Amino acid sequence: MAHELVIKARILQAGAFRTICIGIDNGRISAVQAELKGEKEFHFENYLAMPGGVDIHTHMREPGFTNKEDFYTGTMSAAFGGTTTILDMPNTIPATDNAIAFQEKLELASEKANVDFGLFAQLADIDEIAKMAPMAIGFKLFMADTTSASSVDSPPEILLTSRHMVGKVVTVHAEDPGQFSNDECTDLHRHNLIRNMKAESEAVKTILAIDTPAKINLAHLTTRECVYMAQRNKSSFELTPHHILLDESMDLGAQGKVNPPLRKRPVVDKLFNVMKTGRAIIASDHAPHTLEEKSGDFAATPSGIPGVETRIPLMLALAEKGLVKHQAVQDMCCQLPADLFDLKKGRIEPGYDADLAFYDLQNMVKIDGQKLHSKARWTPFEGFGAIFPVGVMLRGNMIIRGGKLVMEKTGRNLTV
Ligand code: DOR
Ligand code: ZN
Question: Is the pTM higher than 0.90?
């Protein structure tokens, strides 16, 4: 029997490139075989088809900061970078820490999202946690204050042992404010000294010592030591493109200001080597601020770097340069993050959503912040090599083709 749609393309299977047919019916992958018949057929043999990317750490900024981003622009930016699923963080205004705010944000996102999404709820109030649990893709715990987010008053031990945490992912921003110094923050080097590596490792120790029924996921780790702690504890962890590629000595000014901070080159290089193993989740921590906000006085500049659109393109460029395996990039950007949240995404296998991105691996370009689709329109990766997708499909429909968003606002919430 013919499938609704058959796409012939190159895919990665167990580390090797092969040309194969992907059968698609009702928005799902229904077969992956050497030959298939389709009512419609797309011939993309010159392109690598990867599963749509899954970015489990983004700040879409809505409601409250729509001068920086909103669900429409943030998810459009994701799509142009080959990412078809984003998870949104709760440090908005109002904060997503109660059921009413959650419901409001869910309506906004459902109306505007160009890719599929899930919303994090912030761990703060135990009664609200109970109400949000069925709707939330996971919970976020901030151990330290950071841009527009406050650490919570209730001790994490109490929140993390609630019965509503059973089986839920809790993404933890691990920095211990007790370790911060109060020097004046005048440049990236000082920022790194103030929010130092010990602050991160102490926080990681504290969290991993708690006996919780939740799945602890450590956000944006910046040191190999913290990664080892996570691995010993069998906890998942995220690495960001900026922490494996950028360091505090670079001439980025406040555009490189982020929490946790960019570290020194030898630390960055060790983290890069962790990434090369392919056993990490790459998440962008897409945290856009306006160029104006990022151009003022260093100390007053908010922390955060946009990155949802450059995450996979940068990683694929590294693969083309031979610095990491293509299969590892696919695993870290698609499959591992999807698996953590039990999503039927991130793989080109029967039963999974037909979310696909097509890449011409020969077409390496230099990143130009002006051409990105986030409201930020700047990037600390200006001039870096990147491979952007030429087409992107969400549940069987092409949403990006010919450099344009051709189908908009079809993103769905993943917890219904
Ligand atoms: O640099 C950061 N910016 N780190 C965070 O944890 C929050 C983020 C933001 O929302 O701007
Ligand atoms: Zn974040």
Answer: yes
